[in-house]
Fold these 2 entries.
Entry 1:
Amino acid sequence: MRKKFVAGNWKMHGSHSANAELLSGILAARPFACDVAVCVPFPYLGEVAVALAGSDVRWGAQDCSAHEKGAYTGEVSAAMLSEFGCRYVIVGHSERRHYHGESDQLVADKAKAVLARGLTPIVCVGETLGQREQGTAHATVKRQLSAVIHALGHCVGEMVVAYEPVWAIGTGVTATPEQAQEMHSLIRAQLHAATGHADAMKILYGGSMKPENAGSLLAQQDIDGGLIGGAALKAADFVAICRAAG
Ligand code: PGA
């Protein structure tokens, strides 16, 4: 059986004091039966690494450059993230794809750069409401995933995938457990066709997951955890989701 994994995506939220309070609330609630991580804004990586050192709560970033190093003002490389003890890097979040114009190819290149440094990419895929209404949800997700599968080659099995329907992110509208499971099983089938061993791969659901709906989503056969935005900013909510995953 796959161990569940719950990752918080803090997005552009936090402050020294808010982070300290949130992390101490998470640490106080250990042990968890699932794997737990927080993906935080770059400037906070140092303090988060210190706060979580010696615990089994992992940390990660929300993006990184596809380049190894060089004249890329404002960018952060996977090598730098690994120096901060990051274990995970979210790539291809829909907010990056949408607001920053990230293409499937760029997302795939970023995932490759992350893996090359021994970190685990959490690769986000998901359709917009328009694409779902037009009946192209699966084709969209398949295309996004294909680019990453192609770029990663024999390392495909090392990534974590997060299915995040864009219409459910930060909206309070959640995919029903059945809608999510349907897409997750299609994703697993695509991963299986590429790797031959996708049974061990983790596919997270993201999009308005909260304590009230986490149990029914996480009970689905192919939902192996959650990528949590809004509900990851309050220790009690995040911990409740981690408990639901246990
Ligand atoms: P949400 O965000 O839980 O606030 O919907 C999830 C995400 O964007 O990763």
Entry 2:
Amino acid sequence: MLPDFRVRQRDYLLEISRAVTQELDLKKLLARILRISIELLAGQAGLIALKEASTWRVATAHGIPPAFLRYLEPLLAEERTTNLDVDELNSLLKDLTYTASMGLLNGVGLSLISHGKVIGVIFIFRNYPDLFSSNDKQLLQSFADQAAIAVYNAQLYGQVSYEQQRLAALIDSAADGILILNPDHTIERVNDAFERIYGQSDEALRGKRHEDTIRWAKKPEGQTLEQAEVSGWPLTSGAYLYVEGDLLRSDPQPLPVGITYAPLLTDGKLSNIFATVRDITHFRNADEVKATFISVVSHELKTPVALIKGYASTLRREDVRWEKHVVRESLTVIEEEADRLAHMIDDLLDASRLQAGGLALSRADVSLPVLALRLAKRFQTQTTRHQISVDFPSGFPAVLADETRIEQLLANLISNAIKYAPGGEIAITGQNLPEQVVVTVSDEGPGIDPRDLPHIFDRFYRSDGAVRKTKGAGLGLYLAKAIVEAHGGRIWVENKPVGAKICFSLPVVSNQLSITNHQK
Ligand code: ADP
């Protein structure tokens, strides 16, 4: 039979070994090792100090008066202790304890060594003069060894969980959606951006199959993950996989996305697939705008050029003598088409200026009733099918605005009314509200189809009907909106049983001018 002491010692060592393998909280674990070491060596107090990057720190202490620790900590933390070896620290602590306890305490200290490096020290103090025997020291050494393993494990664990947290934070902060897939294509987790893109939570998606989650509205471009795997990806070709298409999701509107699949191979075996999902709406829009721009420029600019060229070369024919009225009519067409061309080029330039950095305004007091009246007169000369009326209440305040731009805006709205309404009244009216004015241009034409409403202020947008029946670049309302917004106002469409009604508001910043009622 083993003597009691040996039994206790074995039990303690077993307890520590168990603790070392089970407990990953370093602070708790060291406290446990220290408590057991003190008990076994029949001591009253003790401490474990760890060597950190550039200093020493008391990681746990037992039975040591706080005043002593307060004295000890700065001493350990001092720069000069950085390279202190255990012997030095030992004698430092011995001196300290001796002084602090007026010779009543005596202690023993041993280093904690892991992978050949001193990573800390353990000290046990007794409050009776009995010296520590070599057996005591041997015993303490086995605790010191266990503590060293514990520190090493806990540090490793800390590092791993820190890396895991860092990775999770990185994944969640990514702007692109990320899906982490298991080799069997079930979803391990998704990040915040994917939740937003897809409209479902990580919790709801975990465990679902990739093929039930990533579904396309129409055949995507490139190989899907499933198709690629049939041909042996990623083991035959470890390269990334890229597929682009319209992703079906909770929102009824599919989202254009590009997905990159990257395999994670461990020892030649697939352990995860990382899918990065990027919203490519902007690229699509840019592509569409580019395509529309080319078709607008080629169609809308070519038509007047062809007309001008046609009329000019007809008039130039030397074998024909043209009557005067034919010459006049032909020249009128040439002039009108040249004006249209100039106008379109101005609009295109304005649109590209807008994209490059907004509109520069040169503001002064502008009387909207006077401007509306002037434009009504000018446009009335161009149409006999419409009657243009202007109605502003008396005392209408002036607005601080860029007159040329406001004229361009109103002219766009009036010319649209003439273009889209086959006839009837075109009414330009003003409303004076607190701190803002509202101007409305309404006609008695077909009005704006509710399906076109969300898009009519977009660049190059033209309704299908408009494309078939009328000429235009789809820039009029886009520029109108930009002008209104540059002035701090708003533009919108109001539903009317008959015809279109476009309204815009402008803030009133100047009240110096007030204009009396203008009617036509
Ligand atoms: P464009 O007139 O060159 O097509 P706009 O930007 O001025 O371009 O107008 C965009 C679209 O809004 C037009 O294609 C047309 O469908 C619609 N629209 C604008 N004004 C009217 C109106 N007064 N009546 C009916 N539809 C209109």
